[in-house]
Amino acid sequence: MRTGTYPTQPHFDNLSYISDGRDRISYLNDPYAVSSRDAVVDRNGIVLQPKELKRSRHNNNTAYNFRPGQDSIYAYSNAAFSDYSGADSRGPSIRSYIENSHNFQNPYITTKRNRTICGICSKYWYIFGLLTLIILVTIAVIIGVLVFRSKYKSRECYLLCDPGHRLVQLNSTYCECQLINECEFNPPVCGLFSCIKFNGIGYECNCTTGFRHPSTTHDLTACEDTNECENLNTCGEHQLCHNTIGNYTCSCENGFETIITPDGIACQDHDECIVPNPCSNARCINTNGSFKCVCNSGFEPELSNPLHCDDIDECLRFNPCTDHNEICENTAGSFLCSCAQGYRRNEHGNCTNINECAESTAACDINSRCEDRNGSFACCINTITDECIECGHDYLSPRSVGMSSFTFATSLTTIDLTTKMASLAISNSSSRLNAKKKSTKKIKSKKVSNPVRSKRMIDGQPVEPGRFPWIAAVLIKQQYSSSEPRYVCSATLVSSWNIITAAHCLDEQHFRKQWEITGEPSSFKDIFDIRIGVHNLSLNSTDFIQSQSYSIENFTLPSRYQSLSSESATVQEDVALIKLTKRIERSSNIDWICLPTMIHIQDQDRLKVVSYSNIDDDLIQQQLDILVLNNDENKTECQRQLGDIAEDAFCAISTNHTSILGRGDSGAGSMLFSSNSRWHLAGVMSKTGLQKSYSAMTNVSKHIEWLTSLVER
After folding, report:
1. Separation between Cα atoms, residue 637 and residue 692, nearest integer Å
2. 230-269 in CATH: which number?
3. Peptide bond before 301: cis, by omega within 30 degrees of 0?
4. Domain 429-708 - what CATH class?
């Protein structure tokens, strides 16, 4: 420790550096003190004395910035820090900021404390003011509430009232028990009914006529409607009771009408059988309050409608016509027994056969032999034998040498000449075909590999003239087709008056889309020209020039015919029957084919189709064989080629895949040669495939009843 002499007078006030007890030098706000680096310290860091102390700059009235409760002042055993006596002490001694070695308060410290308190007060004065104001307002509100309650507070009544009474506060100081009168309540407790107050407790509602107290609860304070209709005698006889709110009404039962009597209103029976008659096919019988229908003779009640009677078809239930030659015809409520076709009733009332051959010279044409049948007749082709061939004769077999006794020799010469001409024509046609096949062999091979839909038959075989005398052609007349007749469709002769073709050939809407017509006829049927038995349709050919032209009197299409106006259209009922304006006379070149009877087309049946095709510059009859495809495997491909095919059509394909039917072959007949050596019309060509040689044929046997009803001999 540094040695030196220290004055005995107190020098605590001159200190600028003191220790806060945390072994470091703290500098208190002494504005006159020098920095800590000027202080003299020992090895423990204890301040010994300031190196330089300018006491003259100190003011004894300046207080140090000492924080009460936070700082402590420590003194050490150093003369510079000795107490008033100057004694040295080893340990630190704590001095309070209020202690004074001279036994008086340090004016500097006192001044500092007062200044701090005043600073706090001046800084937060508005807070103290606001708190004071809140306290005063709260006190004032509490006082006001207490005064108000003490002035207006009602006095409580502690009276106990009897049942049927209520406590009433008359004023602030007086209350009493008063009797409750429910009849004075608003709204009224009894509603529309009057209220009766009991002398004691409670009340009663006075129920008026048509109302009563509930029968189940017997509540006198409620009223409910009285159901007068519960009493069966409320209304009179044959009357119905209708309950209403507070009342009831009466009305007459069904079948009765209201009348006025001296005793009031009554109900009497209404006669429903007065015109109009409510019964159908029956007699109306009036009953008390109703009526009933009694069916007329030949009728029976309809189960679902008792007012209607259905006709009894006696011909279906039992055949009342006992004669074998009679036909039962049902009529409304009855039936008729008429003689079958070919029979008439004699004087004994029996149906006997009519000999058409003896009675009518017009039964057959001059080139046919009439043969009477039981109930019918046949127009037989004159043959060498006496066999009667009505239709579909195979003209490859031996033929008659005369159509009648009068024309016997002439016909023989004609037939021989015709045969020679036919042989020559076949020879010439074959020569031309062979030459053409040789010159176009490569081209035809190319067509066969991928054939497409054509206009006419392709690669057909030649037909001998007169082989199929029922082949007909449908043409557009010259005045409606620019400069020359135009071949439209094929057809088949089936009687002396009728030919069969495809319905779409006579579908006017479809026809006008396919063909251009130069003029406008008075009727659509007038544009057609029919040629029958013509081998060569070329305009300059002898066959065409010498052929007979026929016009259409009328034609009939099936009711369910579906137009083939699009490629995807269904082939359905595509068959039509044409009636000509004049009768066809059988000859060596004109005859008709047989209609099918019970013939059903089977899978793999072989049919023959004859139509017209271009050979060089001529339009000549050609033929090809087709095979019926009626199995599921082949139908799939056929459907893909032709679209949808209805049940009344069948699919077929050429047996020779190089032969194809074209669009111009529509209406051509597909023929079946039956076991009795007759040709029957099996189908009518309706549609060809997009590729290959598929065709759709309308099955004629599916329409045989419709056709035979229209065909005329």
Report:
1. 11
2. 2.10.25
3. no
4. mainly beta
Amino acid found at 551: S
Helix ranges restricted to H, 90-158: 107-123, 125-152
Cα distance between residue 713 and residue 377, in whole Å: 10
DSSP tag of 506: S
User: N- to C-terminal Cα distance for the chain?
Assistant: 169
Q: Could you give the CA distance from residue 298 to residue 302 in angstroms, rounded to a whole number?
A: 13
d(CA 42, CA 616): 150
How sure is the predictor about 397, in pLDDT bands with cuts at 50, 70 and 90? low
What residues contact residue 290 under an 8 Å CB cut-off, 6+ apart? 254, 255, 272
Residue type for position 192:
L
Spell out where 533-605 has E strands: 549-550, 552-556, 576-580
Q: Alpha helix (H) ranges present in 468-598?
A: 508-514, 542-546
Residue 520 CB partners (closer than 8 Å, separation 6+): none
Distance CA 698, CA 700 (A): 6
The answer to whether 353 touches 374, Cβ cutoff 8 Å, is yes
User: Which helix (H) or strand (E) segment is 350 a member of?
Assistant: none
Distance CA 514, CA 34 (A): 131
Q: Over the Cα atoms of the chain, what is R_g? A: 68
Cβ neighbours around 490 below 10 Å, total: 27
DSSP 633-661: HHHHHHHHHH--B-TTEEEEEESSTT-B-
Omega prior to 276 cis, within 30 of 0:
yes
Residue 569, CA atoms < 13 Å, CB-side half-sphere: 16
User: What CATH architecture applies to the domain 316-354?
Assistant: Ribbon (2.10)
| Predicted confidence (pLDDT) per residue in 522-581, tens digit | 889 998 999 998 988 888 888 888 888 999 999 999 988 878 776 667 778 899 999 999
> What percent of the chain is predicted at pLDDT more than 70?
71
The predicted structure's pLDDT at residue 528:
92
Place of tokens 């046997």: 701
d(CA 702, CA 227): 73
Nearest to 390 by CA among 568, 592, 585: 592
Rounded Cα–Cα distance for residues 344 and 622 (Å) = 47
**Low-confidence winner among 123-132, 220-229, 367-376, 418-427 (lowest mean pLDDT):** 418-427
Query: Stretch 431-446: mean pLDDT, rounded?
Result: 37
CB atoms within 10 A of CB 540: 9
What is the token pair recorded at 380? 């037989």
Residue 485's nearest CA partner among 553, 441, 438, 534 is 534
Rounded-to-integer distance, Cα 412 and Cα 401, Å: 5
In the chain, list all ranges with CATH 2.10.25.10: 316-354
Nearest to 611, CA basis, from 683, 675, 666, 649: 666
Q: Cα dihedral sign for 106, 110, 115, 116?
A: positive
> CA–CA separation, 278 vs 69, rounded Å?
125
Cβ count near 366 (within 10 Å): 12
Taking all residues of the chain, what is their mean pLDDT, rounded to a whole number? 75
Higher model confidence: residue 676 or residue 621? 621
Parallel/antiparallel/unpaired status of strands 552-556 and 549-550 = unpaired
Location of each CATH 2.40.10.10 domain in the chain: 429-708
Q: pLDDT for 276-308, tens place per residue?
A: 889 999 999 999 889 999 999 999 999 889 899
118 CB contacts (<8 Å, ≥6 apart)?
A: none
CB of 75 closer than 8 Å to CB of 89 = yes
Task: Work out whether strand 39-41 and strand 47-50 pair parallel, antiparallel, or are unpaired.
Answer: antiparallel
Residue with tokens 């019918």: 376
Tokens 């497409």 -> residue? 452
Q: How confident is the model at residue 252 (pLDDT cuts 50, 70, 90)?
A: very high
Query: Is there a contact between 299 and 313 (Cβ–Cβ < 8 Å)?
Result: no
pLDDT at 446: 30
